[in-house]
Amino acid sequence: MKIVLLGTGGPRPDPKRMGPSTLVNIGESNIVIDAGRGVAERVVQAGVPITNVDYVLITHLHFDHVGGLADLLFAAWNKGRNKTIKVYGPGGTKEMMSHLFEAYSKDVWYRLHETALTHQKLGDIRGLVEVKEVEPGALSGFGDWVVSAQYVDHGHGLGLSRRDWPCLAYRVASDVASVVFSGDAVSSPDLVEFSRNASVLVLCCYLAGGEVIDDDAKLISRHVLSSSLDAGKIAADANVGKLVLIHIREKSDDLLDDMVAEVKRDYNGVVILGSDLLEIPL
User: Fold this and answer.
1) Residue 281's pLDDT is what?
2) Among 13, 68, 123, 278, which one has the highest count of C-beta atoms within 10 angstroms of its own C-beta?
3) C-alpha–C-alpha distance, residues 66 and 133, integer Å
4) DSSP string, 216-251
5) What's the fold here for domain 2-280?
6) Which of 191, 195, 190 shows the shortest CA–CA distance to 242?
7) pLDDT score at 68
């Protein structure tokens, strides 16, 4: 089992970082957690053929987490994948996928006409992508390993309901290790308990403490995205083996050093500052 950080960027484009996305490889299976900008390119750069992605888990429907989803799916299809790709996500994922297929309907129409004349046949992508909307609990269809989901807080302190804005963390476990992916979240009892004793927690950490100085930054840190003021406490309370920080706002090297130092004040385990295409040992 291994994980590769495909993209660690936040919502603003950074030419050095792609959007949030992580690859999990277990045996012959490849899972992509979130599908931010550039995910298809990063999958290939990580050494996985684009046709070999079997599952996509979406934490929530912000554009920076799904902006590369169509590219990932259509690129695999166009390269000849005729096996099902399973897409899991919160409520609203089926509607989003329906709109994506509608947006590319002319492309689908063309390629289905073209494949009638070629030796290599393409199935209809609309039948190859299987979409399942997720609620907390164990998910089915993953063979000898276990995937589960839990609701997390990402803007819910601002008055948003789980029905209107469901956001998820995922836990992927094999007989070797378990990894939790927070998605975008702030500290909550649900996130801590869901991460309990995980080998690795991949956690969003948008701001360093030195950036939490004005009202907007305080609101973000408290209700939207965890900062280094809370990340170490989450990891310590959950007793995780390693903490990997991603979804970090662009900042100076000095602030990045401060961020890690602030996290280590609360957590004495291994802290890894995420970067694109970094492989995390398990």
Assistant:
1) 82
2) 68
3) 15
4) HHHHHHHHTS-BHHHHHHHHHHHT-SEEEEESPPP-
5) Metallo-beta-lactamase; Chain A (3.60.15)
6) 195
7) 98
Q: DSSP state, 120? A: S
pLDDT, position 142: 83
Q: Which residue has the tokens 């931010």?
A: 36
Q: How many CA atoms lie within 13 A of 172 on its CB side?
A: 26
What SS3 class is residue 145? coil
Q: What is the mean pLDDT of each run of 10 residues along the chain (282 residues)?
A: 92 85 94 98 97 97 98 96 96 98 97 91 95 95 89 96 97 94 98 98 97 97 97 98 96 94 98 96 83
Would strands 146-151 and 55-57 be described as parallel, antiparallel, or unpaired? Answer: unpaired
5 contacts 244 by C-beta, under 8 angstroms: yes
User: What is the Cα–Cα distance from 233 to 156, expressed in whole angstroms?
Assistant: 20
> Could you tell me which of 264, 195, 227 has the C-alpha nearest to residue 10?
227
- The pLDDT value recorded for residue 11 is 72
Write out the two tokens for 36: 């931010």
Per the CB < 8 A criterion, the answer to whether 69 and 63 are in contact is no
